[in-house]
Design a protein that fits this description.
This protein has 132 residues and is of the alpha+beta class. It contains three helices and eight strands; from the N terminus they run H-H-E-E-E-E-E-E-E-E-H.
């Protein structure tokens, strides 16, 4: 029952809170994932500030694996973007990473990353027959 509630909240968030911004002047569309604060709350998406200096020590829950890439989701103003990371060390609760796109005080997703991943995947998939 709890999973179906979570799924309902996800579908609601996906339908109402995800916005796509495409730059019409470019052949290749740059898509930006935005998730409203309300949707983040419903989906249990939480962010934590990056502190210190590189290499960064992050919660292991921040790590997202997509095919051969490892990364984290960084909140950038009101958008969320995937940042590639190089894993230097892992332990039970944390990871040590090096990343070009991370700086002190950046916020990375530490909970709800699977929902962000699903929304990003939907955002970047082209509808059938929409090839260039």
């Amino acid at each position: 029952m709890k999973n179906s509630l979570k799924l309902s909240a996800f579908v609601l968030a996906l339908g109402l809170a995800v916005q796509v911004q495409a730059d019409e002047n470019h052949h290749h569309e740059e898509k930006t994932l935005k998730i409203s604060a309300e949707a983040q709350k419903h989906l249990g998406i939480e962010f934590a500030k990056v502190s210190g200096k590189s290499p960064w020590t992050l919660s292991r829950t921040a790590l997202v694996q997509i095919k051969d890439a490892n990364g984290v989701y960084k909140k950038h103003e009101d958008a969320i973007e995937f940042i590639d990371v190089q894993i230097l060390k892992t332990d039970k609760d944390s990871i040590s990473v090096r990343a070009e796109g991370l700086e002190a005080d950046d916020e990375v997703a530490v909970k709800g990353t699977k929902f962000i991943r699903i929304m990003e995947s939907e955002l970047n998939s082209e509808p059938a027959g929409h090839g260039h």
